[in-house]
Amino acid sequence: MSSTGTPARSSWSGKWAFILAAAASAVGLGNMWRFPYLAAKYGGGTFLLTYLVLVFTFGVSLLLLETALGRTTGQSAIGAFKQFGKKYAFIGILASAVPFIITPYYCIIGGWVTKYAAAYLINGPEALADGGDFFTGFITSNTESFLWMLLFMAIVFIVVSLGVKGGIEKANLIMMPALIVMAVAIAAYTLMQPGAAEGALYYLVPDFSKFSPELVIGALGQMFYSLSLAMGIMITYGSYLDRKSSLTQSVTRIGCFDVGVSFLAGLMIVPAAFVAMGSGDAVAGAAGPSLMFITLPGVFAGMGDAAVVVGFVFFLLVLFAALTSAISLTETCVSIIQDGAGWSRKKALGTVIGVVVVAGIFVNLGYNGLSFIEPLGAGTTLLDFFDFFSNSVLMPIVALLTCVFIGWIVKPGLIVKEVKLSSPFKAEKAWTVMIKFVAPVLVVVILVAYVAAQFGLFSM
Ligand code: PHE
């Protein structure tokens, strides 16, 4: 069970390239808009603390499991599970379905972000701050939103076509540091706005009266999506990793990146939106796309001459976050097909491009043309459905199967051995308890809660 003997397989140029790629995959739209809104909703600091604890216990344990599984098998998800018997391949197949479902709609939102970055320069900040007409007009305008989606996809496909070292590593090396610098600058600037300090306090100071089971479930779901768990990505990325790199240290660093950027995103967005809306509850109410595409442009427009720069830089940094995640999603799809069908990288990429473009067009039609399809009830779209199905249903199922598979069928010893090839494993016992007992229970809780919430049986 080793990756040697398969010379055609890609590999990272070093441990840092791997950490950066995993962080680039983790840091995405989820950090940029979902995290701030959840933090606003669940009492700021209370949510931050809960999230921090979950990432560094549950989150890094699963990251470690997936990365070690990838490295020990030298395969992407399907092959990795199949090595233990044909009957387990279905876990890998389920995991692999996730990136195929997410990539098309992720690129649609990526197209919106690209459009907004450009619109700050072309249309100016006032045009975007019209209370929502600009946004609605744009997403329901089939041709225009298709074109921006295609532009976003084109960048992603070009980077992936350049390969792991020549494309993905280089793109991450430019975009990740740039993203962090821009985030720090925007956060500093928005915090200097009048009234922002009060918003920052709301964001930072824990309000323990808001601690609730819903908060924990919300934080758990966010953690899954944000760390790109349970969809085969980390298995693929682990399979490109050499045996010298310490896995425990790497996954801790990936967690730090993800939490750090989420924290910064909250610092950019919550105080700014707080100023505009007057209270934390109002910010929490502006959940989902409206916070980023309607509320924030309203805030930026009030910044006078700085509005163009702040708006443009903000959407550029969100664009970088979206691009690096979309690149990692696409790479995972490519490696799944490459390994599964035994095709060349080129042929696999061509297939992925075809599937993603066609599926993207279909999902985009959900805003106009196919908007009569309301899969999750009145007012919902195809995009909402795919988002719900992948994040709230498939990912928890895959995570549960993975934990049971490693914890009870293969036995944790296999992963422990792989981890110890490159570093001591101080948390071995705690990790084993986590994978065998704690994680499966938590995952079942998320699954039940999310599905119940979707059908109105539970409110989150
Ligand atoms: N983790 C990314 C985010 O926070 C989303 C993502 C999910 C990226 C799955 C890759 C794979 O937005």
From TrEMBL:
GO molecular function terms attached to this record: symporter activity
Transmembrane segments: 12-33, 45-67, 88-113, 146-164, 171-192, 215-238, 259-279, 299-327, 348-368, 388-410, 431-453
Signal peptide residues on this chain, from the entry's feature table: none
Broad class of the protein's primary localization: membrane
GO CC annotations on file: membrane
Record PROSITE patterns: NA_NEUROTRAN_SYMP_1 (PS00610), NA_NEUROTRAN_SYMP_3 (PS50267)
SUPFAM superfamilies in the record: SNF-like (SSF161070)
Domain of life from the UniProt record: Bacteria
Protein family per UniProt: Belongs to the sodium:neurotransmitter symporter (SNF) (TC 2.A.22) family.
Protein name: Transporter
Native organism: Gordonibacter pamelaeae
